[in-house]
Amino acid sequence: MTKEKIFQAALRLFARKGFEATSIRDIALEAEVTSSTLYHYMKTKEDLLVAIMQEGLQTLLGNAKEVLAELEAPEQQLAAFVQLHVTSHAINKLTALVVDTEFRALTGNTRVEIARLRSEYELLWQRILTGGLEGGVFAIENTKLAVLALLQMCTGVAHWYSPDGPNSLEEISLNFSDMALALVQAKRNGQQLTVSDLDLPEPARFFTKPWLGAAAHEHS
Amino acid sequence: MTKEKIFQAALRLFARKGFEATSIRDIALEAEVTSSTLYHYMKTKEDLLVAIMQEGLQTLLGNAKEVLAELEAPEQQLAAFVQLHVTSHAINKLTALVVDTEFRALTGNTRVEIARLRSEYELLWQRILTGGLEGGVFAIENTKLAVLALLQMCTGVAHWYSPDGPNSLEEISLNFSDMALALVQAKRNGQQLTVSDLDLPEPARFFTKPWLGAAAHEHS
DNA sequence: GTCTATAAGCCGATAGAC
DNA sequence: GTCTATCGGCTTATAGAC
């Protein structure tokens, strides 16, 4: 389907070269159509960017809300959030890079809308940390700074993850969960918690929906 | 001095709009010269980017080596590295954003050279973590993943720091040091270490040299 | 060392045939 | 739904006067 080919071409190029460095003609060439054909499926180049970012953020947000609906303990929620975020950013690496890098290319209303989605997602993390702090499970001085630190550390996965790397995605996401639990000093009975103490459900079910309808791992 | 005005103008615009979205004419306008004048001080637009990135990374790397020369204990080195990285990325926010965001705009030899500087810096972090692990002070499963997590979390400061924000830079850098020490589970006598246990020298001395000769905080 | 003028080409987007 | 042809403007970079 032509529309799908165009959006996938835009995704690959935006992730590799950046939105501004990618021309309409580049996208047309990559999608194997002429540049005029693009304008049958969109109004401006920015529309492509907006579609990619909305899809990515909305899927992530939806999955995050499902996690919260299923798990109650803050330490479980945190570990599941880290796994969701890390796995999403690895599997949907290209989309994640675009979402992470190209916000400044947005103009007008969409800029506000995307910012709202992002801060809604941040607020969920904020609530988890506050919950764990109030329950005496976490020990952190400043939840806002901790949220920023955790999000940034997990988002970074999109920048270096490769399916051919030395660590499997499962290893990485478990390891990052452990680091997050350590960062917030999650404890039961004075004992530092790790992800293996938490008896989490299979993580896979939280992010089966791939962003932008990609069938498998996105390629860089 | 014209040269300084041009480089500062490029720095501001690259940080705000991105390298590709910034035109030669934009820089000339911001520096209050004509676009031809720029070419008296550089050969191509990329030269400006390279100069900014080299200056930033070399200064950071030099300061990091000074820290290692003065401190021996891995827990002290780690805390000082976090303070150096966080403070540098807050004070030299614009340079840090450019270094962090515009690597993909580089071509040819400079791309390799900048990548080398970056991985040299990463290696210093790697050695600190390995040292702490071997000394039994840190408890981490995978030092490479921990380095990536720590670096990403500290680098993120450049994206949200503001001198008008709710937390002072000193609060932020101390807080981040504590989070880093918690992440690696730094312990003495079974007791979790915080930065106040470490008796560090005044951090200010490690990053008095501002990047690109900026006199004070860089403005966004 | 800074300017005016301009080259040569790519940019996003559109008109209109089929 | 996809194409060819093209518009007006902006791009990096240069030539050459002062």
Account of the 3D structure:
2 copies of one chain form a homodimer. Chain A has 220 residues and is mainly α. The first copy, chain A, folds into 2 domains: 1-42, Arc Repressor Mutant, subunit A (Orthogonal Bundle); 47-213, Orthogonal Bundle (Tetracycline Repressor, domain 2). Chain A is 65% helix and 2% strand. The first copy, chain A, is built from 10 helices and 2 strands. The first copy, chain A, has helices spanning 2-17, 24-31, 35-41, 45-70, 74-91, 93-101, 108-134, 143-155, 157-160, 169-183, and strands at residues 187-188, 191-192. A two-stranded antiparallel ribbon of chain A has the order 1-2. In chain A, β1 and β2 (191-192) form a beta hairpin. Chain A starts with a helix and ends in a 28-residue tail after the last strand. Chain A binds a DNA duplex (18 and 18 nucleotides) through α3.
Count, helices of chain A: 10
Structural class of chain A: mainly alpha
CATH architecture of the largest domain in chain A: Orthogonal Bundle
Query: Which chains share the greatest interface?
Result: A-B, 38 and 38 residues
Percent of residues in helices of chain A: 55-70%
What's the number of extended β-strand segments of chain A? Answer: 2
The name CATH uses for the topology of the largest domain in chain A is Tetracycline Repressor, domain 2
Estimated radius of gyration of chain A: 19 Å
Strand content of chain A: under 5%
The top level CATH class name of the largest domain in chain A: Mainly Alpha
Q: H/E series of chain A, N to C?
A: HHHHHHHHHHEE
GO molecular function, one term (chains A, B): transcription cis-regulatory region binding
InterPro entries (chains A, B): Homeodomain-like_sf (IPR009057), HTH-type_TetR-like_transc_reg (IPR050109), HTH_TetR (IPR001647), KstR2_TetR_C (IPR041490), Tet_transcr_reg_TetR-rel_C_sf (IPR036271)
Pfam families (chains A, B): TetR_C_24 (PF17932), TetR_N (PF00440)
Protein name (chains A, B): TetR/AcrR family transcriptional regulator
